[in-house]
Specification:
single chain; 8 helices; 11% strand
């Protein structure tokens, strides 16, 4: 079983090397600098994302994570953001990968300073700019003033309902715990 895994990893490694050679031959940047993730409405900040960012930073000191939001982009605003783990969060994670909310609080790490956002600048060639200007004149300008699409609203509501369900479950656990404490005090 272990030899199958090693063989599969070797095949993947050979494929990656061959792909890098092919990209180099057509003069395309082939060096890996991080990873890309597509998420809806900034729902990327979870444990898996944190683990992935840490793993890439451990391998490459300057690794970043690119986050793309297709729903925001569909509304006409290109949504690409880049993040990397803050230095203090990296040190804490390196010391103990199973850190808790108390550890984050003690080290004064919050959602705002857990990750460092890196500004993303996208530059187009002159020919691309000309094409975009031509497409802009052809396109109906009233499309920018329409309300969000139904898929955007539907996804927003789904995420809100999911969050409300989690809050409701937590409240039920707290209420059960309080009842148990009160009943144990009366006995």
């Amino acid at each position: 079983m272990n030899s199958d895994t090693d063989e599969g990893m070797e095949i993947n490694r050979e494929y990656m090397l061959e792909m890098e050679r092919s990209l180099r031959q057509v003069n395309i940047d082939y060096q890996q600098v991080g990873f890309y993730q597509s998420t809806y409405l900034n729902t990327h900040c979870d444990r898996n994302f944190l683990d992935s960012v840490f793993d890439y930073l451990e391998e490459m000191n300057e690794a970043i994570a690119l986050i793309y939001d297709p729903l925001k982009t569909k509304l006409g605003n290109l949504s690409i953001r880049a993040f990397k783990l803050s230095v203090s969060a990296f040190k804490l994670y390196k010391e103990d990968k199973e850190f808790t909310a108390e550890m984050l609080r003690d080290n004064k790490l919050t959602y705002e300073n857990l990750f460092v956002e890196i500004p993303v600048v996208i530059k187009n060639s002159s020919m691309t700019n000309v094409l975009l200007c031509e497409l802009d004149t052809v396109q109906d300008n009233t499309s920018f003033f329409t309300l969000p699409t139904s898929s955007y609203l539907e996804k927003s509501i789904q995420l809100l309902l999911g969050g409300l369900d989690e809050i409701n479950q937590d409240l039920q656990k707290i209420n059960n715990h309080q009842r148990n404490v009160i009943s144990s005090r009366h006995q």
